[in-house]
Amino acid sequence: MTNAFEIIGGTPLKGEITPQGAKNEALQILSAVLLTSEKITVSNIPDIKDVNKLIELLGDMGVQVEKLAPDTYSFEAKNIDQDFFLSDAFKEKGGSLRGSIMIVGPLLARFGKASIPKPGGDKIGRRRLDTHFLGFEKLGARFDYDPSNGFFNVDASNLKGTYILLDEASVTGTANIVMAAVLAKGTTTIYNAACEPYLQQLCKMLSRMGAKISGIGSNLLTIEGVTELGGTEHRLLPDMIEIGSFIGLAAMTESEITIKNVHYQELGMIPDVFRRLGIKLELRGDDIYIPAQKHYEIETFIDGSIMTIADSPWPGFTPDLLSICLVVAIQAKGSVLIHQKMFESRLFFVDKLLDMGAQIILCDPHRATVIGLDKQVQLRGISMTSPDIRAGVSLLIAALSAQGKSTIYNIEQIERGYQHIDKRLIALGANIKRI
Questions:
Q1: Which of 205, 235, 265 is the last residue of a domain?
Q2: What's the pLDDT tens digit per position in 319-348?
Q3: Are residues 66 and 135 in the same domain?
């Protein structure tokens, strides 16, 4: 049995949808439970593969995991089995999960050593982990790569606070170094730190646990090491990538959709970027309401030149939503240049959109120009395979707006990032079935 979605497109959707908890925040917060022997309760956890794998991995290490509600777990990391980190089971599980890199900082901080298999994950070009390792080294960790078993072994029995200028404002790198620094001796200063809301959430949670962190929300974090941390409760933010995906979906399918409980003030530029594509949206309480729109027109710059949408570190526009913008622009009036600066090969799914009838010029691995069809021509349904999480959802949106039947294969890529996406869209009236 293949695992694929069969979609009959071309019908408007209607109703309310609630975004899941933020995947990228979950991976950091769940790793942070290793910093204390006391109980930590986390709610609004998304039910998706990458997060469930990490919860399972924590259980295998000896963390007491209790499921209190469908989206709420408690974690107690009293007795961690150190031998587990050299086992084949850890190599297999840790190696298949990109988020497993996030457990290294907490383990170093609390136990003075860690082993980590070489990570795998999404195919979106080279994602270096140097930022993480260079940061640990500056704090005094020493590590060597053992090619015979494919593990990095790290010794951090003597972590000391220091000044760290990150080579890139990596979210996971910043989070990992913060978690290592909270229990290091002395003061750590991290400059060019990532400022994402998810990282702010981590810092706020660590502060409630007893960490001393100042500069939260800025790119200069100062951390005074403490000797131990306590338990706390934490609720994850809604996933901003899902929120952006649903805005794009509404526009593309001429649907009237209300996105519930979005934590609007944490969305940064996301609503404004979709407005630049001509999409009307209004804030009602903490919900985003999107009316059904027959047409939407891309703005130009003030001098009349073509709009460019590019990603950059927070508070810039997140790279995870560029593929959504690209798809939404297909049916807009006007043209836009989509510039994907942070990753190469994230735009390599445009060939599928061209097969569906889109007008896109792929300029190079980082840039694509979309010439909007202004709903004059409907996309055609086709069979296609999803290359990564974000492109998968973009193709799903294209398929829902297209005429006729589309089949999307390799949907486990989509399900790594979006919980029960088919059921939630069917509730809005989408015609999707699994085959």
A1: 235
A2: 999 999 999 999 999 999 999 998 877 898
A3: yes
Per annotation, catalytic residue among 50, 122, 311, 422: 122
Same structural domain for residues 200 and 341? no
Contact 388/363 with Cβ under 8 angstroms? no
Strands in 151-155's sheet, in edge-to-edge order, are 113-117, 151-155, 142-146
Binding residues for UDP-N-acetyl-alpha-D-glucosamine: 98, 320, 342
Reduced to 3 states (helix: H, G, I; strand: E, B; else coil), residue 179 is: helix
Residue 128's pLDDT is 62
175-214 per-position pLDDT tens digit: 999 999 999 999 999 999 999 999 999 999 999 999 999 9
Q: Point out which residues pair with 144 in neighbouring strands.
A: 153
Q: One-letter amino acid identity for 84?
A: F
Same domain, 216 and 242: no
Secondary structure E strands in 291-366: 307-310, 335-339, 360-364
Binding residues are: 23-24, 98, 320, 342
Shared-domain flag, residues 190 and 249: no
Q: Nearest CA to 177 among 85, 117, 109?
A: 109
Q: Which helix (H) or strand (E) holds 40?
A: strand 39-43
Q: Quickly count: other Cβ atoms within 10 Å of residue 386's Cβ.
A: 24
- DSSP element (H, E) containing 424: helix 421-426
**Low-confidence residues in the chain, pLDDT < 70:** 1-2, 98, 118-128
Is residue 122 part of the annotated active site? The answer reads yes
Annotated binding site for phosphoenolpyruvate: 23-24
Is 111 in the same domain as 228?
A: yes
Pairwise CA distance, residues 305 & 335, whole Å: 10
Q: What is the DSSP string of 140-157?
A: T-EEEEETTTTEEEEE-T
CATH code of residue 210: 3.65.10.10
List the domain range (segments joined by +) for residue 11. Answer: 4-20+238-434
First vs last Cα of the chain: how many Å apart? 7
Note the pLDDT of residue 2: 62
DSSP letter assigned to residue 430: -
